[in-house]
Design goal:
The structure holds 2 protein chains of 2 kinds. In chain A, 80% of the residues lie in helices and 0% in strands. Chain A is built from 13 helices and no strands. The two termini of chain A are 14 Å apart. In chain B, helix 6 crosses helix 8. Helix content of chain B is 42%, strand content 23%. Chain B has a 6-stranded mixed beta sheet, with helices on both faces. A 4-stranded antiparallel beta sheet of chain B has the order 2-1-4-5. Chain B is of the alpha/beta class. The chains are: A mainly alpha, B alpha/beta. The structure holds adenosine-5'-triphosphate and magnesium ion.
Chain lengths: 315, 263
């Protein structure tokens, strides 16, 4: 418990650093947003007035401090483009992407863990070559390609959903159905990777001495796997799944384009091309938070699994 | 009690047989010592008895009879009934032989889990009893510990507790003291002697150290390159070794120690 609190504190510190870097980066790379908003025809006076209005003349640290404080109070700034609070703009999109990510993640864990176990048990069998080939193939196909394929087959041909018309989260059932195909596209390569790593971890655990001890007590293969090996193989898998969270976020940016899902990824792309920095910053920080949070959760879960990791946490 | 008849084991990836025709008998309540240099086939002999040979990657022949039941060629389900219940095994490295993520207590009572339908409290009570029988202090505390929290000597005691919890007829000890320092080693030997005296459990004690064997076993068998070269009363073998290999093994023990340890 002490460790969990420590980890959460670390999470907070990391987020402050990430947000600072995001803020700094956009401050450096941004061309002048005032000029951008007013166009090249603008008079220097009107640009200066707008800079004043946007608060761009004040020192960097002051602006950062205000922005960070805003984050904790739910005020993510005002969009340059839409002149609306950023949160009003991205709120529902955050939820859409969250649904897509969670769906992908559930798909990945629920499919890859049983499949990994099965594949480890069958290791060395006749179909090993086939399994490896299928695995390689799945790992190699990029989500956007699978996405196009899926929306063509299930959308255009089978009419299971209508590509391009996302029903919105109010219609939760049909929204989930729509998101499901996008989630599949994201999940396939990660499932292949997770299966492969789970399989190799289990196989190397099976070589360990404690397995021999377990067998010498009269356990059968299945019991050895369930009672001992699975838990030992889980730690690296949990870490890997946390990294998967980051991949899902990256994958969703692309896949949202393919499926025309109004999520954060699409919003990010539009905001970048519009130089809408408050929006871009907010999205970047939210995505970073999502990834860092996944890492923190993974660490805490691993602590629960492996008592040896608890020592390190208290030291 | 245990009879090994003309045991041969050859691994597919080796040219030479690891065990090339070993016959051995262990009588009721006896501790038999098995010595020999590294690679002489001691562990493979013990693994054959314990049903731990990797059957797919070796050829094996002969017989292993535990109270008349053939084990070498027995199918897995029969073997599993014998493992843990009639036969316990203790390995050289207690640290790696234990599951790092399982509490000591749960590992000790695992045999009960597999072979009996005792409930949680009964299992726990028996595990605590077994931990006490191997002379561990504060058994309730030890029960809750994980392997990395105990010393090698304590872990090896816990391993022994796990192996004897169902009072097996036979205990196989594959260099159980080699990884421990000398004082701990002596304590473990005393413990084994006591267990043997009190419960009449037969033991196969493997070591490459003749001196250790001499302290514990009345009878000893000497192995070299997969065959038994000498077998007999420990003191006789010690004082009047017949085989040149045994003579070399004995000569390798420092003289001062030999005198010191002479009865
Ligand atoms: N799983 C295995 N696969 C291939 N060869 C093996 C295997 N296990 C043992 N061997 C070989 O069998 C021979 C006998 O090994 P064994 O482990 O029985 O020796 P040992 O007498 O126990 O030696 P040590 O004192 O080092 O434990 C060795 O040559 C070893 O390399
Ligand atoms: Mg050995």
């Amino acid at each position: 418990m002490k460790y969990a609190a420590k980890r959460l504190l670390m999470l907070l510190v990391t987020m402050v650093i990430v947000s600072f870097l995001a803020f700094l980066a956009f401050d450096l790379i941004s061309g002048d947003p005032a000029t951008a908003m007013l166009g090249t025809q603008a008079t220097p006076e009107s640009v200066a007035a707008l800079r004043e209005e946007l608060g761009l003349n004040r020192p960097f640290l002051v602006r950062y401090g205000e922005w960070l404080l805003g984050f904790f109070t739910g005020n993510l700034g005002t969009s340059y483009n839409y002149k609306q609070p950023v949160w009003d703009l991205i709120g529902t999109k955050v939820m859409v992407t969250l649904c897509l990510s969670v769906l992908s993640f559930l798909l990945i864990t629920m499919v890859s863990i049983p499949l990994g176990l099965w594949s480890a048990r069958r290791a060395g069998g006749r179909l090993d070559g086939v399994r490896t080939a299928v695995n390689q193939l799945c790992m190699a196909v990029p989500p956007f390609f699978t996405g196009i394929l899926l929306s063509w087959v299930f959308g255009v041909m089978l009419h299971w959903f209508v590509p391009g018309s996302f029903p919105g989260l109010e219609h939760f059932g049909s929204a989930l159905k729509y998101l499901f195909f996008a989630a599949v596209a994201i999940a396939i390569p990660r499932i292949a990777m997770t299966v492969r790593m789970l399989r190799s971890t289990i196989m190397s655990e099976m070589q360990k001495d404690y397995v021999r001890t377990a067998i010498s007590r009269g356990n059968d293969r299945g019991e050895v796997l369930r009672r001992h090996v699975l838990k030992n193989a889980l730690v690296p898998v949990v870490t890997f799944l946390a990294q998967t969270m980051a991949e899902i976020v990256a994958g969703s940016i692309v896949v949202e384009q393919v499926f025309a899902i109004p999520g954060l990824g699409r919003m990010l792309v539009t905001s970048i091309s519009n130089r809408d920095y408050p929006t871009v910053q907010a999205i970047v920080v939210i995505l970073a938070f999502w990834v860092v949070l996944a890492g923190t959760v993974a660490d805490i879960v691993n602590q629960c699994i492996d008592p040896r990791l608890r020592l390190g946490g208290d030291a | 009690m245990l009879e090994i008849r003309d045991l041969h084991v050859k691994f597919h990836n080796r040219d030479r047989e690891a065990v090339a025709g070993v016959s051995l008998t262990i009588h009721d309540g006896e501790i038999l010592g098995l010595v020999g240099e590294s690679g002489s086939g001691k562990s493979v002999t013990a693994m054959s008895v314990a049903g731990l040979l990797p059957r797919k990657s070796c050829d094996y022949s002969g017989q292993v009879l535990l109270d008349g039941t053939e084990l070498l060629h027995a199918d897995r389900s029969l073997l599993r009934q014998v493992q843990g219940r009639d036969m316990g095994v203790v390995f050289q490295e207690p640290m790696t032989a234990m599951d790092p993520l399982m509490k000591i207590g749960h590992q000790v009572e695992e045999v009960l889990h597999i072979h009996t339908d005792k409930n949680k409290q009964e299992r726990r009570a028996m595990a605590l009893e077994a931990l006490a029988a191997v002379e561990l202090p504060e058994v309730e505390v030890v029960y809750e510990k994980y392997p990395h929290e105990l010393s090698g000597g304590m872990l090896q005691r816990a391993m022994i507790a796990a192996a004897i919890i169902q009072r097996p007829k036979l205990l196989l000890l594959d260099e159980p003291t080699t990884a421990l320092d000398v004082t701990i080693q002596a304590q473990i030997l005393e413990l084994l002697k006591k267990l043997n005296r009190e419960s009449g459990m037969s033991m196969l004690f493997i070591s490459h150290n003749l001196n250790v064997v001499r302290k514990l076993c009345r009878r000893v068998a000497v192995m070299q390159r997969g065959v038994l070269v000498e077998e007999g009363d420990t003191e006789e073998v010690f004082h009047d070794p017949q085989h040149p290999y045994t003579q070399r093994l004995i000569a390798a023990i420092p003289t001062r120690k030999r005198k010191e340890d002479a009865p």
